[in-house]
Amino acid sequence: MTGCIFCRIAAREIPASIVYEDERAVAFADTNPKAPVHLLVIPRRHITSLNDPVEDADLLGHLLAVSAQVARENKVDGTGFRTVINTNADAGQSVFHLHVHVLGGRVLGWPPG
Fold first, then answer.
1. Domain containing 70: what range?
2. Domain tally, the chain
3. Which of 57, 71, 94, 109 could serve as a FRET partner for 41 with CA atoms 20 to 30 Å apart?
4. 12 to each of 6, 18, 28, 64, 85, how far by Cα in Å?
5. Which CATH number goes with the domain that contains 13?
């Protein structure tokens, strides 16, 4: 999608602090972090949200595997990290391109919101 900020980051049209990329996913630092480690993992292919049909269910598993990898690389896997996928505005989704938040580096309370 041409105007999507995350599509433009994945295409490297907009600078971002990219920490991981492969042919299917990109991970980068959130510009408005809510924890000492706050990364976003996105599919390169534009998917608006979990409400959209995902023909490639393996892609969702890949995004979670990448989330665990970047958590390890940022040394929050031992102390704990949270993965979050917000779906629609009422749940906190502000960029309508599916993305996984990876948060860690501090105690994360429950319930989250």
1. 5-104
2. 1
3. 109
4. 10, 10, 11, 22, 23
5. 3.30.428.10
**Residues designated catalytic:** 99
Chain centre distance of CA 84:
8
Please report whether residue 42 resides in a domain. Answer: yes
9 within domain boundaries = yes
Q: What is the pTM for the complete model shown?
A: 0.94
| 101 vs 93: CA distance, rounded Å | 11
**Is 91 part of a structural domain of the chain?**
yes
Would residue 34 count as lying in a domain? Answer: yes
65: left (phi over 0), alpha (psi -120 to 50) or beta: alpha
* pLDDT computed for residue 98 by the predictor: 96
Burial class (CB in 10 A: 0-12, 13-18, 19+), 28: buried
pLDDT digits (tens, 9 = 90+) for 54-76: 677 899 999 999 999 999 999 99
